[in-house]
Design goal:
This protein is mainly α and 299 residues long. Helices cover 53% and strands 0% of the residues. The protein folds into 2 domains: 105 residues, Cytochrome c-like domain (Cytochrome Bc1 Complex, Chain D, domain 2, Orthogonal Bundle), CATH 1.10.760.10; 111 residues, Cytochrome Bc1 Complex, Chain D, domain 2, CATH 1.10.760.
Length: 299
């Protein structure tokens, strides 16, 4: 245990005593009452100073949470990406599988194996069930992969199943804006410019950004988006200039924006139609909770 030199202890006592009003120092009873509350108060102040930023970021992370963001984090924690690849983009090799690899969550996988939420739930809860899998060509038994899909029923709790389903639906391309709509064109534009590399799959947000106000890059819907984008004009400024005049005028906000490691770039050459399409995509995300609700349920 660390020990303080006698001289240091004396100086600390003198420093603390200097904080005591003179009236209290002259009255022993008042002095004891004052010091009884002084040390706990200082301890609480120190604790708040040390833990405050961490507690704030925990609160902000929960406030801005959404099913897709939670589902992706849960899939990573459960080891799903160990077999299906980063964000389910490519599976590991599997000599026993029909395609010689663990299926990815996109590129036609949903059409081959998954038709609806019930199928997603079955795979997550039960794992790969050979008697229910698609039969092999010629009517024989289905291929038996060397890397079998395990059951996760016993390790899921709370909203895990719904969150994992929401993440899979998004990553597999099962939920997208209506084909040819302005929102669909905005989504494709965001894909072309790799906006989701920073703003998270589908614009779900949550990727780390050290030094930022909340500690992560905001999504394109939900409370964090609403805090940063209050009007269509502010949305245009963020894209064209990479800045926001309202936040630049706020000393605290400006300080965090200037010190965050990942800065919003300026896409000054985007056309007015590009902005319209991107804005339409953010509205679709907001109306469908990031694609969790269907078009019929969004209102």
């Amino acid at each position: 245990m660390q020990s303080w030199p006698a001289g240091s202890r004396t100086q600390i006592v003198l420093d603390l005593a200097s904080l005591v009003p003179s009236a209290h120092r002259e009255n022993p009873l008042a002095f004891r009452r004052f010091t009884r509350w002084l040390l706990p108060g200082l301890a609480l102040l120190l604790a708040a100073t040390v833990a405050g930023p961490w507690l704030f970021q925990v609160y902000w992370g929960r406030r801005s949470s959404n099913p897709v963001r939670r589902g992706i984090a849960r899939a990573q924690a459960l080891g799903c990406t160990s077999c299906h690849g980063h964000l389910g983009s490519s599976g590991v090799k599997d000599p026993g599988a029909e395609s010689l690899e663990v299926p990815a969550w996109s590129g036609g996988m949903s059409m081959m194996y998954v038709r609806n939420d019930a199928d997603i739930h079955r795979y997550i809860l039960e794992g790969s069930v050979p008697t229910l899998e698609r039969p092999a060509e010629g009517g024989g038994p289905p291929p038996r992969p060397a890397v079998a899909m395990p059951s996760f029923r016993s390790v899921l709790s709370g909203s895990d199943l719904d969150d994992l389903t929401a993440a899979f639906r998004l990553l597999a391309g099962m939920v997208t804006p209506p084909e040819g709509s302005p929102a669909a064109l905005g989504r494709e534009l965001a894909r072309q410019w790799q906006c989701f590399s920073c703003h998270g799959p589908g614009g779900s947000g949550g990727l780390p950004n050290p030094g930022s106000f909340a500690g992560f890059i905001p999504g394109w819907y939900g409370p964090d988006f609403g805090d940063l984008v209050r009007t269509r004009g502010e949305f245009n400024d963020w894209i064209l200039k990479g800045r926001n005049q309202r936040l630049d005028a706020n000393p605290l906000a400006a300080r965090f924006l200037s010190r965050q490691r990942i800065q919003m770039p300026a896409y000054a050459r985007f056309a007015a139609t590009d902005l319209d399409h991107l804005w339409a995509y953010t509205r679709w995300l907001e109306q469908t909770a990031g694609g969790v609700r269907s078009e019929e349920e969004k209102h």
